[in-house]
Amino acid sequence: MLEKVKKSLKESPIVKKGEYNYFVNPISDGVPAMDPEILKELIDVAVKHIDLNVDKIVAIEAMGIHLATALSLATGLPFVIIRKREYGLEGEKEVYQETGYGSSNLYINDLKAGEKILLIDDVVSTGGTLISVIGALKDIGVDIKGVIATIEKGDGKRVVETETGIPIFSIVKIDVIDGEVVIQSTIED
Ligand SMILES: O=P(O)(O)OC[C@H]1O[C@H](OP(=O)(O)OP(=O)(O)O)[C@H](O)[C@@H]1O
């Protein structure tokens, strides 16, 4: 299982964003081109392990969108995107996102207190994005039934779990060592 995912990650070029070692991969960047078999491997594992008794899938722009789309098609569940674009719709909630190499405002719409949701994103690294998004979702009062970050890099998963008290489901754990992606473990090990 996950053979194409692991091969793709091992082949990821690394670029420097300041001091940050950024891996470039179809899952996290849509570059190089995504082999749909990679997406299928990820979604098959997620469906096998995750409680899908939710009202909505919630994804974070940008690189949570293709994962939410694939999961939605596989499950029939609707999905909503936390956008980097402000709409000014009633009830819209602004969230400040900070990663290891940049920051952005995110905007949450069409989520109501009591809705059961599954949050999905591509990568957790410093944990900054998930910590702020989970905090905002808690403020809205949604019921976070699960959080998927398909790739955990470094100790981001632990940081988010410690900060939020919410378990993070990741599929592959990697590190960037000496300019290369090293696969540390997968959920299927
Ligand atoms: O754990 P963190 O350090 O917060 O990093 C994880 C975040 O970084 C990327 O978002 P980013 O907004 O940089 O890129 P994207 O728009 O391509 O998703 C990625 O999609 C995650 O949301």
From TrEMBL:
Protein name (record): Hypoxanthine/guanine phosphoribosyltransferase
Top-level class of the enzyme under EC nomenclature: transferase
Gene source species: Methanobrevibacter woesei
Transmembrane segments: none
Alphabetized UniProt keyword annotations: Cytoplasm, Glycosyltransferase, Purine salvage, Transferase
Job of this protein: Catalyzes a salvage reaction resulting in the formation of IMP that is energically less costly than de novo synthesis.
Lineage start: Archaea, Methanobacteriati, Methanobacteriota, Methanomada group, Methanobacteria
Localization in the cell: Cytoplasm
Enzyme Commission number(s): 2.4.2.8
InterPro entries: HGPRTase-like, PRTase-like, PRTase_dom, Pur/Pyrimidine_PRTase
HAMAP family: Hypx_phosphoribosyltr (MF_01467)
Top-level taxonomic group: Archaea
GO molecular function per UniProt: guanine phosphoribosyltransferase activity; hypoxanthine phosphoribosyltransferase activity
One cellular-component annotation, GO: cytoplasm
Signal peptide: none
GO BP, sorted A to Z: IMP salvage; purine ribonucleoside salvage
Subunit: Homodimer.
